[in-house]
Write a structure and sequence with these properties.
heterotrimer, A mainly alpha, B alpha/beta, C mainly alpha, B: alpha/beta, Rossmann fold, six-stranded mixed β-sheet, 13 helices, C: mainly alpha, MetI-like fold, 2 domains, two-stranded antiparallel ribbon, 18 helices, 65% helix, globular
Chain lengths: 377, 307, 542
């Protein structure tokens, strides 16, 4: 164990050393004037960022300085300026993720304090949002429980995955292994277009057509059911599953597939015994990403659900749809302020963290697949 | 096979030598191919008979009217420069070209006298009987044992699944016997017998290729097609494969594509030479083709003047 | 000869026989049932009415029973050698589970509801029935195992419909705290649908003669049905919106010279020869026809703003990652970050914009905040697609250029960027299509009213002003809340009927808005796909 940590810290030291050496080389090899310009660019951009974060009206000044110095640098030392600008753009991409984390977490802190509760003699901030199912923003006691919304999101996501995963993987198999070239040329753009239909359009059709129909069929009071929100959201997540799974399936080397076919197996046997197992990680990553899409889907859920944050009775009653983590934000941001608004940020934090974990998990699985198939890809 | 009408006696070919031979004219005239150069008479049965085989890939005419018969239990080498259609030809023999959507195949290929290009041909049965080893080793990402048992399992000859085990009718012993026999036949047993449950992708290139040959033997084929099986291997691994092919020819009909003429001369009983344009130019006894070819172009190719 | 004994009939199979025809008819019957079930589900076929002179439910029941009998007959015939097939010793676990699931449902609901034995007994009975079905699939030879349990399922379902046990008016009250019931209108089409799929699967297996080929056939039938359904779904969805939206869109449309509003082109006033009030008007009290012009213009500006922000940033980042940075920790972190950003829910971007941007741009919802929020959403997509495009530029190009002594940046500018351009452009267009339809982020950052007067149409270019106080440049148009198509649609839905008095037919107005939104978004996609197709063809030809 000690050795492992040793080698790791050694690696980090090496990497840092390499970075320092490279920076020094860059400084050595670059003309002083160019270095000066770069320094001005970096400092002024940093200044603009600080100004922006501090809500200063003077932000424009360092930003103008940045633009000016960039222009000078571009004319005089294009090589170095291009490098530095590209680097800054990369850093800003990471910075945006960082800002999202900071800001949505920061906004949610007050309500987490408010919802502290004592469990087993220890006071845990925010825990009351998860141990009782009451959401009431109007009449005391004011409670902001996340439980009903988590329940709703889980229900919708389960149903959506049950729709999207089998249909999506089957469609991916069709596109990558079965369809003749001409059919693929038609179906593949079709799947992409399906991904492009705005969620509010799905929601609108769900609200005007599916909702009344479903409430009629199941004789429910009022419209809005997790079952149909789940189905619609599943159809919306379908294209994600199809395209990612199709990529994974087509990355299985053709020689493996031919090897199996030349043994006298049917196409279907080749798919189930060679192609799918070889692409298994990629296909599960596809399903995971589809699940992530389903969790984050907002507008269709907002429009189709009832908007009353409570648990359904009984819990498995999918014919009633109350509220999900996404829809409560979209529905209540308008009249919410103070603690309620902060509670909406808590819903955002839960969503963000869940989906980020799923995304990282999917990437890890895909990375493992590439490692395993090694040089074959 | 006496009813085999296309096998012409060699004497006939001597008489048809009436037209002016283009080989005597200046170099710019392209030498005509002549049927008698590819009429190869052999003892024994023709395992596969190909007649007037034409293959087009889109507008590209990859094979032009190839006719040849492949004798049983021997090694037939197909040689020729790159792009001459020899691999295409090989892949027609077990209909792997069906996978290429742009390919159009005309003509006739018979296996034991049965046409394989007709409606109702069972591709599963055909490919079971005409196995194939590919240019670069392509083991499945499974264990060595599973690689060998794959074909018989898929054909329902071996059942070692969960259900079979539950019902106590698992064929695990038969499977292990088969794995050992195939690996021994492919001269790989001694090297891998202690790690049958390791992933096959961990083997060296030469071992992988012999594993693929063993895998091919597991379904007990009659014909084994090999598409440059040693081109991706080092000389030692190549030598092992060549020895193996020699042994295999006692039981199987082997058809091998190679661009290595020494290899063809070493291992084959008869050789077919394809030249650019997808024509079969000469087909005959390996010694005759290499030492005394009829065609001037073949001679140039073999002596290294072109190709 | 050696192989003579094996030169049997198995290599070449006989032509289509009567038995094949029977199996083929069974597949066809399944297709008819599938179609009928879908039609009934969408209420195109009335369950209480009749088809071809037969009550619908009776017809469905009869067809299902016939299919079930055919499937069983085929299996039994194969088992006793009347039909030549090639079955495996067992149908396999997947077929077993496939058959068990519907039988668990049937057994469970019959025991608990029809016999009234309660949930506990129902669960036990369901599992027991499922186990029997599983054993009946798995234990006998494949030809029996893959037909009898499924054929029985079809037969039982069919008989239940035929005998009227479940008729068109059947209802099952679930008795839950929140009232809900399963009605015949739902149960009959859905069970017919799944039965038809099972029937199609079983008869396709039979058609293939069981064994490996039979399973191949069975699986292909299901995969093809799935693919066809997805395409059909897309087609129906788009067609539905078009049909519903056209009347509202064309409301008051006039053709002919001088009918349209006048615009100035190069300083010359030109009257458009066509007038589509829905696209050219806002909402106002004295308008003859109301329209969504402000929302269209808002969407356009949003997209422009997002592209201006995200494309340089994204392409620059992709450039750095592929060309300058060595593969290592840093690129890995950026990759994880971009992929994480890509899957971040849109509403979270909205929250972020609300917390981060709104206080910094005049403390109110504004077009600028919306642009930046959407730009952040577009950014990861631009990075990912540009990176892919740059990675697919062969290294030989770079090497060839570097070998001529050209500096790195020159190589990038003159070799890498042009070669990667098609991929980048396609990716950007498809990404724009995605964000143009997004509602959630702009909901919190920029959205304005439900019905927007034409006077509030954003005029960004004309809005720039210079001021003496910092920040010296101001553009009230950018800092104003405005509408966009997806938001407008959302607002129209939630506004309900009450607010509709001033647009005449509110439903028409909504559908027309949905149609315009769909057209705008799908045209981005169409352009993106066409661009890719064009570049690909050009690559092939050169």
């Amino acid at each position: 164990m000690a050795q492992v940590t040793d080698s790791r810290s050694g690696r980090i030291r090496n990497a840092v050393g390499e970075q320092v050496r490279r920076t020094r080389r860059f400084v050595d090899e670059t003309e002083p004037a160019a270095l000066a310009i770069i320094a001005v660019m970096a400092l002024s951009l940093f200044g603009a960022l600080v100004g922006f974060l501090a809500v200063s009206d003077w932000t424009i000044v360092p930003f103008a300085a940045f633009l000016g110095s960039s222009a000078v640098g571009w004319v005089r030392y294009q090589e170095e300026t291009a490098y530095v600008i590209a680097l800054m753009m990369t850093v800003s991409t990471i910075l945006i993720l960082g800002l999202i984390v900071v800001f949505i977490f920061r906004e949610s802190i007050p309500v987490i304090r408010y919802e502290s509760a004592t469990v087993f003699g220890i006071t845990v901030p925010g825990i009351r949002m998860f141990i009782q199912p009451e959401w009431d923003a109007v009449s005391p006691p004011i409670r902001y429980s996340m439980v009903p919304m988590i329940h709703g999101t889980v229900m919708v996501t389960l149903i959506a995955s049950a729709v999207a995963a089998p249909l999506g993987v089957s469609a991916a198999l069709f596109l990558s292994e079965i369809a003749p070239a001409t059919v693929r040329e038609v179906v593949k753009p079709g799947v992409e277009i399906l991904a492009g239909i705005p969620s509010i359009v799905y929601g609108f059709i769900g609200f005007t057509v599916l909702g009344p129909w479903a409430s009629d069929q199941f004789q429910t009071t009022g419209q809005g059911s997790y079952l149909f929100v789940g189905i619609v959201v599943g159809l919306m997540a379908l294209p994600t599953v199809v395209s990612v799974a199709e990529d994974a399936l087509s990355s299985v080397p053709e020689s493996m597939k031919s090897g199996s076919l030349a043994m006298g197996t049917t196409d279907w046997q080749t798919m189930t015994s060679i192609t799918l197992p070889a692409a298994f990680s990629g296909v599960s990553a596809a399903v995971l990403l589809g699940v992530g899409r389903a969790i984050g889907e907002t507008m269709a859920a907002t429009v189709m659900l009832r908007g009353v944050p409570r648990l359904t009775e009984p819990l498995v009653n999918v014919f009633y749809g109350q509220e999900t983590l996404t829809s409560i934000i979209a529905r209540n941001y308008g009249e919410a302020d103070g603690l309620q608004m902060d509670a909406l940020f808590v819903a955002g934090v839960i969503l963000f963290v869940t989906v980020l974990v799923i995304s990282i998990g999917a990437q890890y699985i895909e990375w493992r697949m590439h490692e395993r198939l090694g040089g074959e890809i | 096979m006496s009813e085999n009408t296309t096998t012409t006696p060699q004497t006939q070919t001597a008489q048809t030598d009436a037209d002016p031979s283009p080989t005597t004219t200046t170099g710019e005239t392209v030498e005509q191919t002549r049927d008698e150069w590819t009429d190869y008479e052999f003892r024994g049965e023709a395992k596969m008979a190909v007649e007037d085989l034409d293959v087009h890939y889109g507008d590209d005419h990859a094979l032009k009217g190839v006719s040849m018969e492949i004798p049983e239990e021997s090694v037939t080498a197909l040689i020729g420069p790159s792009g001459c259609g020899k691999s295409t030809y090989l892949r027609c023999l077990n209909r792997m070209n069906d996978r290429v959507s742009s390919a159009r195949i005309d003509g006739s290929v018979k296996l034991d006298g049965r046409e394989i290009y007709q409606d109702g041909v069972n591709l599963v049965e055909l490919r079971k009987r005409v196995g194939m080893v590919f240019q670069s080793p392509n083991p499945f990402p499974k264990t060595i044992r599973e690689n060998i048992a794959y074909g018989p399992k898929k054909h329902g000859d071996l059942d070692t699944g969960l259900l079979a085990r539950l019902l106590n009718r698992s064929d695990a012993d038969e499977r292990d016997d088969l794995v050992e026999r195939c690996l021994r036949d492919a001269a790989l047993w001694d090297e891998v017998s202690d790690r049958l449950d390791d992933n096959a992708l961990g083997l060296s290139g030469g071992q992988q290729q012999r594993l693929c040959i063993a895998r091919c033997l597991s379904v007990d084929p009659e014909v084994i097609l090999m598409d440059e099986p040693a081109s991706a291997l080092d000389p030692i691994a190549t030598a092992k494969i060549e020895d193996l092919i020699d042994d295999l020819s006692e039981e199987y009909t082997v058809v091998i594509v190679t661009h290595n003429m020494q290899q063809a001369a070493r291992i084959s009983d008869q050789t077919a030479v394809f030249l650019t344009g997808g024509e079969l130019v000469e087909y005959g006894d390996t010694d005759q083709v290499f030492e005394n070819p009829h065609s001037e172009r073949v001679e140039d190719y073999i002596t290294g003047k072109f190709g | 000869m050696a192989g003579a004994g094996r030169t049997d009939t198995r290599l070449v199979e006989s032509e289509t026989t009567e038995t094949d025809a029977v199996a083929g008819v069974a597949v066809g019957l399944s297709a008819v049932l599938f179609a009928l079930a879908v039609a009934a589900l969408f209420e195109r076929v009335s369950l209480t009415g009749s088809l071809f002179g037969v009550p619908t439910v009776t017809l469905l029941g009869g067809l299902l029973t016939a299919l079930g009998v055919a499937v069983i007959a085929f299996g039994v015939g194969s088992r006793f050698g009347y039909v030549e097939t090639n079955p495996d010793p067992s149908a396999g676990l997947i077929a077993g589970f496939g058959a068990a699931v519907p039988w668990v449902l049937i057994g469970g609901s019959v025991a608990s509801q029809t016999l009234g034995l309660g949930v506990g007994v129902g669960a036990v009975a369901g599992v027991a029935t499922g186990a029997v079905a599983f054993a009946a699939s798995v234990l006998p030879r494949e030809d029996l195992g893959s037909t009898v349990p499924l054929g029985a399922l079809l037969g039982v379902t069919g008989l239940v419909f035929l005998t009227g046990v479940i008729g068109p008016t059947w209802v099952w009250e679930l008795g839950w705290a929140q009232q809900a019931a399963v009605t015949a209108e739902f149960l009959i089409p859905v069970s017919t649908l799944f039965s038809a799929l099972y029937g199609g699967w079983a008869s396709a297996k039979a058609y293939g003669g069981f064994g490996a080929r039979g399973r191949h056939m069975g699986a292909y039938v299901l995969v093809y049905v799935n693919a066809l359904s997805i395409v059909a779904f897309l087609f129906i969805l788009v067609a539905f919106v078009v049909v519903q939206g056209i009347p509202g869109l064309l409301n008051g449309t006039e053709f002919g010279f001088g009918t349209g509003p006048t615009t100035s082109v190069f300083g010359v006033s030109v009257a458009l020869p066509v007038s589509v009030p829905f696209l050219m008007n806002g909402v106002a009290l004295f308008n003859d026809f109301q329209g969504v012009l402000p929302a269209i213009v808002g969407t356009v500006w949003l997209v422009v703003g997002a592209v201006v922000l995200a494309v340089p940033l994204g392409v620059g980042a992709a450039l750095f990652l592929t060309e300058y940075a060595d593969r290592g920790r840093f690129t890995q972190v950026v990759e994880v970050a971009t992929n994480g950003l890509w899957s971040t829910p849109s509403i979270v971007f909205g929250l972020f914009g609300f917390a981060f941007l709104i206080p910094r741009f005049g403390n109110g919802k504004s077009l600028l905040s919306g642009m930046i929020t959407l730009g952040f959403m577009l950014l990861p997509l631009v990075v990912i697609t540009s990176r892919e495009a740059m990675l697919s530029v062969p290294d030989e190009y770079r090497d060839a250029s570097a070998a001529l002594g050209v500096s790195k940046w020159q190589t990038i500018r003159s070799v890498v960027l042009p070669a990667a351009l098609p991929g980048v452009v396609t990716g950007v267009i498809l990404g724009v299509g995605r964000i143009a339809g997004e509602t959630a982020p702009i909901l919190l950052t920029m959205a304005g009213g439900t019905f927007v007067p034409g006077s509030q149409t954003a005029d960004v270019i004309g809005g720039f002003q210079f001021t003496s106080a910092p920040p010296f440049v101001a553009n009230p148009e950018l800092l104003q809340a405005t509408s966009a198509l997806p938001y407008q649609l959302y607002a129209l839905i939630t506004a309900g009927v009450g607010a509709s008095s001033n647009v005449g037919n509110a439903d028409e107005f909504r559908w027309a808005t949905a149609l315009v939104l769909l057209v705008v978004v799908l045209s981005f996609y169409a352009i993106g796909i066409a661009t890719r197709y064009y570049f690909r063809r050009r690559l092939k030809h050169t």
